[in-house]
Inverse folding.
C-alpha cells in the first residue's frame, strides 16, 4: 500500500420521502465519490421491506445498469461510498450494513472511526455476539440489538453512548431515516430539502447535484429523525463537549464547491495559499499546482505573491487518486500515469509547486523530478498545511507515525529528500487564521498530536463488563 496521500474516509447520503429515492441516492453518491472509491452501496425501503445492492468498485460501475436501481424501490434510501479506515478492503465490509434483528430490519451507513472499537468488540464477543465483518460499524448494530430500551431512537442513543470517536451515521428502517453526528463533530454532515423530501449528505455538493435546498449543517451531537408523516425531529441526547471538526477537511478532503463547518471550501483553500505566500514568498516566474486539491491554494499563492499561475501539471482523470498504485512491476510509472508536465510552461522557469500535504515524501520527490525534467531551472515546493506528523484515528486512513516523513525529519531534511530548491509549510497559526475561529475549535491531531478523544484503556476484564452494565439497566 502506498501512502502518497492520506486515504479518504467515507461518504454517506440519504433521501427520505421521495418517489425517486434510490436514483437520487445514486446521484448523491456520485457527488461524494471523492470521499471513497473502494466500494459503494444503497439500501432502500418500500415501506415494508429493505432492499440492498452493494459491491466493490466505483459508483458508476456498481450502479451503472439502470435495472439495478429498479430493484431498489421505495420512497427512502441511504447510500455509502467507502475507503476503508477500519476493516479490510473486502466485499463483506461494503456498507450500508443491513441486518434483521428482534425489532425488525435496519440498515446503517457510517463515516468515521470508533476509538474504543477493540474494547467493545471484545466485550460483545465475550457476551456471545458473532461478527460478520471486520468493521467497527458493526459494533453499533450489536449494541443497538442488545439495548434494553423500547423505542428505536432510545436504542440508538443507548448504543451510541457506549461508543467513542468519530461518526456520521445514517440509519434506515422500513418507516424511518435517522441521522446522527458525533458530539465532537469531526466529520461534516448536512441537511437538505427537496420538495417534501428530506436529504442528508456528507457534503453540500451532493445536495447541489440533485437540486436540493441546503437547509443547514447537522450540529455536533445532534440526532435527526425523519418519520412517515413527513416531519423531522431534532434531539441532542449526548453529553455536550466542545466541537472539534477536522481541519484537514479544508486542506484536502472536502470538495472545493462544498460548504462545511460554516465555510466554503474553495475560498478557504485560496486563503491558505495567500497565507502561504505571506509566510514563504520566493522569487519565481510561475506558480503551478499539484491537481486537483492544490489548485485553489496555488491560485491564492499566485495572487498574493504577484506571480502568474499556470496549469503546469495536467492530471489524467481516468485513473484513481494518487494513493492508488499500479502493480509493483510498473510502480515507478505511478505518478507519471496520473500527472504530466506542460514543458512549454516550465522550461527555463523558476517554478513554485503548490501541494496540500506531504505524507511519506515519495510522491513529492517524483513530482519535483518531473518538473525538473520538463526544463525548470528551479523548483520550490510549498505546502498549504503544516507538516503531517501524527496519524489520524477519526476516520482518515493515514499511515503510522514512523511512515510519516515529518515525524522524524526536519523541513531541511525533507527538502533535500524531495530534491527541491526550497520547501515551505504553512504554519499552524496561519492555517487556523485562514479558516477562521480559534486554535481550540478544530481537531489538529495530525499536525500537533493533541487528540480530542483519546484511546480508552480497559477498566475491567472484557468478559465481565457487559454483564455488569446490563445488570444496572
Amino acid at each position: 500500500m502506498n501512502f502518497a496521500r492520506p486515504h479518504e474516509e467515507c461518504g454517506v447520503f440519504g433521501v427520505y420521502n421521495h418517489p425517486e429515492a434510490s436514483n437520487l441516492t445514486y446521484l448523491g453518491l456520485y457527488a461524494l465519490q471523492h470521499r471513497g472509491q473502494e466500494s459503494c452501496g444503497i439500501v432502500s425501503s418500500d415501506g415494508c421491506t429493505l432492499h440492498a445492492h452493494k459491491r466493490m468498485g466505483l459508483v458508476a460501475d456498481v450502479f451503472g445498469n439502470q435495472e439495478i436501481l429498479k430493484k431498489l424501490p421505495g420512497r427512502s434510501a441511504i447510500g455509502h461510498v467507502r475507503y476503508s479506515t477500519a476493516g479490510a478492503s473486502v466485499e463483506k465490509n461494503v456498507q450500508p450494513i443491513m441486518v434483521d434483528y428482534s425489532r425488525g430490519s435496519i440498515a446503517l451507513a457510517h463515516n468515521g472511526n470508533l476509538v474504543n472499537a477493540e474494547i467493545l468488540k471484545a466485550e460483545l464477543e465475550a457476551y456471545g455476539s458473532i461478527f460478520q465483518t471486520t468493521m467497527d460499524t458493526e459494533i453499533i448494530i450489536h449494541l443497538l440489538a442488545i439495548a434494553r430500551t423500547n423505542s428505536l431512537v432510545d436504542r440508538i442513543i443507548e448504543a451510541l453512548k457506549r461508543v467513542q470517536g468519530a461518526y456520521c451515521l445514517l440509519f434506515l428502517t422500513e418507516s424511518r431515516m435517522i441521522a446522527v453526528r458525533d458530539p465532537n463533530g469531526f466529520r461534516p454532515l448536512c441537511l437538505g430539502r427537496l420538495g417534501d423530501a428530506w436529504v442528508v449528505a456528507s457534503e453540500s455538493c451532493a445536495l447541489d447535484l440533485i437540486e436540493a435546498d441546503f437547509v443547514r449543517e447537522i450540529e455536533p451531537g445532534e440526532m435527526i429523525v425523519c418519520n412517515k408523516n413527513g416531519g423531522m425531529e431534532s434531539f441532542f441526547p449526548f453529553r455536550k463537549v466542545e466541537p472539534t471538526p477536522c481541519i484537514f477537511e479544508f486542506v484536502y478532503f472536502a470538495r472545493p464547491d462544498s460548504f462545511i463547518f460554516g465555510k466554503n471550501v474553495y475560498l478557504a483553500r485560496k486563503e491558505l495559499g495567500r497565507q502561504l505566500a505571506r509566510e514563504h514568498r520566493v522569487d519565481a516566474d510561475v506558480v503551478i499546482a499539484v491537481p486537483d486539491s492544490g489548485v485553489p491554494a496555488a491560485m491564492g499563492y499566485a495572487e498574493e505573491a504577484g506571480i502568474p499561475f499556470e496549469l503546469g501539471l495536467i492530471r489524467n482523470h481516468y485513473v484513481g487518486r494518487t494513493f492508488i498504485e499500479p502493480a509493483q512491476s510498473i510502480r515507478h510509472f505511478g505518478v507519471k500515469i496520473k500527472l504530466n508536465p506542460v514543458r512549454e510552461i516550465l522550461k527555463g522557469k523558476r517554478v513554485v509547486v503548490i501541494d496540500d500535504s506531504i505524507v511519506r515524501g515519495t510522491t513529492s520527490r517524483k513530482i519535483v523530478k518531473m518538473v525538473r525534467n520538463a526544463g525548470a531551472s528551479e523548483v520550490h515546493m510549498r505546502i498549504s498545511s503544516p507538516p503531517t506528523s501524527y496519524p489520524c484515528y477519526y476516520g482518515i486512513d493515514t499511515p503510522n507515525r514512523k511512515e510519516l516523513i515529518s515525524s522524524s525529519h526536519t523541513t531541511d531534511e525533507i527538502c533535500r529528500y524531495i530534491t527541491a530548491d526550497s520547501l515551505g509549510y504553512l504554519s499552524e497559526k496561519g492555517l487556523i487564521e485562514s479558516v477562521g475561529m480559534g486554535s481550540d475549535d478544530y481537531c489538529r491531531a495530525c499536525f500537533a498530536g493533541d487528540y480530542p478523544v483519546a484511546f480508552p484503556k480497559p477498566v475491567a476484564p472484557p468478559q465481565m463488563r457487559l454483564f455488569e452494565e446490563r445488570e444496572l439497566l
Notes: Residues 10-244 form a domain with the Glutamine Phosphoribosylpyrophosphate, subunit 1, domain 1 fold (CATH 3.60.20.10).
